[in-house]
Amino acid sequence: MSKSIHRKELIVIYRQEILKDIRLFTSQPVTKFYDSLFLNLDLSFITEFPKTGRKGFSNHAMICAFIVMKCEGFSMITDLVDYLNNNLLIAHYCGFDISAPLPSYWTFDRFLKQIDNDMLSSIMKSQVLYLSKQSIIDTSFIGLDSTPIAANTSQNNPKSFLSNKFKPDNQPKADADCKLGVHTASNQTNEKKYEFYWGYKNHVLVDCISGLPIYELTTTANVYDSTVALDILADTHTFLPVTECTFLADKGYDVKNIYKQVQELYHGKCIIPLNKRNTKSPKLLPQGNPVCEASLAMWKDGKFSTWLHSSKILLSIKIK
């Protein structure tokens, strides 16, 4: 009888030890990924704890936690909180003390509202420079595009049938900073589908060879893509030269100033499709020939002299 009791006690002890082993409850490839990711993430230039007041949680750990949130594809902070509490090993790699309670929803929410965007830009810049030194990315072939970011407002809800939800003067009360924008709902060139939305734009410059981002800029949704392209190239050039680059973009960047600056300042070239909205219908003569800016007739075969054209015809007849 005593042996069976002793055996049950041992089983309970073994179960407790198994529960303490946090490695058994997280996928090993996932843990290796985050361990390697955070070991190569330089946050030394960011103050880890405030100089005055309560110590609180480490800023480095909080930033790593939000990186986990994005890598896992979570859209809600509550999902992040549950994930860290159920995967203590990853919380440990973030930098949290797993022997103490982890940050609550309100702690993460407050940190997200108070974080400075310049801090995130500095982190991205340091990682880009590190990848450049490792010859993983370069600026020989770069591309720029924007993606819409919808504001969290009911006026963006497709189930809302309000007639004035996309009126410029009907500013959403839930987000006073967002603006009204439009984006294409289809990538097909022959389909003209557009959608209005309230929100922002994320402009991202990428290395087209590796597919990794080099620079990002967030603006309101009413900012045209072409108006920020030169600023993005100039800011990138300050820490990572874009000299002799090949600049790839869509027809939204078909602007003369972009061609001029890329060629003259950076000695590069542009690959941008023609935006037909920026072209003018040429003047035509009665016989159908277009007229150039100098008011001269343009010939489809490249000849602008009827005498030259007739002379070549006569010459071909004599040869025959």
Protein described:
- The protein has 320 residues and is α/β, with parallel strands linked by helices.
- Helices cover 39% and strands 15% of the residues.
- The protein is built from ten helices and eight strands.
- Strands 1, 2, 3, 4, 5 and 6 form a six-stranded mixed beta sheet that branches. A two-stranded antiparallel ribbon has the order 7-8.
- The C terminus is likely disordered.
How would you state the average pLDDT, rounded?
82
Question: First CA to last CA: what distance?
Answer: 120 Å
Helix percent reads 25-40%
Helix count? Answer: 10
Shape: globular
Report the order of strands and helices. HHHHHHHEEEEHEHEEEH
Major β-sheet annotation: 6 strands, mixed
What Rg do the Cα atoms give? 30 Å
Number of DSSP E strands = 8
Structural class: alpha/beta
User: Poorly predicted ranges (pLDDT <50, ≥5 residues)?
Assistant: 311-320
What is the subunit arrangement here? Answer: single chain
- % residues in beta strands: 15-25%
